[in-house]
Amino acid sequence: MISIHNEPQPTDLGDVRVANRAVVLRHVRLHAPCSRADIAATTGLNKATVSSLVTELLDRRLVRETGLTGNRVGRPATMLVLDGSPYAALGLQIGADDLVVVAVDPGGNRLLTWRRAFPAPTAGPADTVRALVTLARRAIGRVTGQGRTVLGLTVGVPGLVDTAGGVPLASGLGWRDVPLAADLRTALRETGFTVTVDTDANLAVLAEQRHGAYAGATDLVHVTGGVSVGAGVLAGGRLLRGGRGHAGELGHLCLDPAGPPCPCGRRGCLAASTALPAVVARLLPDATQDGPVTDYLPELDRIVASARQEDPAVLAGLAEIGRHLGHGASILANLLNPEAIVVGGHFATLAPWLLPAARAELVARTLAPQAGGCRLDASTLDSAAPALGGATAALATIEAGRLPAG
């Protein structure tokens, strides 16, 4: 399983070369264009070690030279930037009404983003695995056709994920005890790369930490908005997983024991009031008159249109949902004191009408003054954030200093 770690440091223990390679890669990622001398001066590695490591990374095309700079004392220096053009990493996510795949290279450049309409909450695990595999194979075919080697694939699920990549419970999907990672590996057969599973919230916060408005933050929460509600938590630069990988189930905190029923079997959960199906049911009572909703985008568009037209019932409903969201955020603020809580999915789409009430509730319910400095904002990433985070997570082996095979 993937974790975000604090900045790697040179070490004399374990595999020194791997650790030092990670130091060099991180420095180039954060400070490119930079020279070998810059790397040595900043990291404390000696110049001979840096030169040897850079030669190795150039040979594997993980970094490349961009020419000389004379903007310094002494001789012009050859500058380095990340390359990674021979490689790709894939992330997939299971949404309320679609599957998404994203591919990125080690430099963080997005190579593709594909969506496929798919009613996962009614499809069942077997059909979902088949659809994921079909989408993954198409993406693999595209990037390998460009001459790239796939480094890894990570799938984001709106539910509990254990340390083996199984899904003990995903109430929004109606899943119990699904060995998703094992099923995917079997269906994909011999891939030559790692296949892992994580919660969509964990992957979304990795995307935020790398690509979002709070890139580089070490204490950050992403709250997913979709078929369920989860929290991906970075604390001190590390992904908070818990003892068995089940941390972050914000959506199943009980806010009102007499509240509406939740798909998990309890009442009054945050998800029962704020998850996408609950929002559509609350604001568009006619949405299910012809059967269950399988495409939520038109319904969200209807809600946005009504809010812009200042429909009183819709505005009141959005304010109430915002207060519930703020209540959940206050629990996170009291427990974790993050720098920011970022909301994604339908929460981001509806942010102009949700966040005023949510921010007021956050401040009112947080013990520390002004919510302990915690900001509550909408994600600036698109709805593919978990898939983008999955692709980012699939790069972890390379970023930890392990060279790709070959």
From TrEMBL:
Q: Where is the signal peptide?
A: none
> Which residues, by range, are in coiled-coil regions?
none
Q: Cross-referenced InterPro entries, in alphabetical order? A: ATPase_NBD, HTH_MarR-typ, ROK, WH-like_DNA-bd_sf, WH_DNA-bd_sf
Pfam families found in the cross-reference section: MarR_2, ROK
Q: Where is the HTH marR-type domain?
A: 23-65
As for family, the record states: Belongs to the ROK (NagC/XylR) family.
**Name listed for the protein in its UniProt record:** ROK family transcriptional regulator
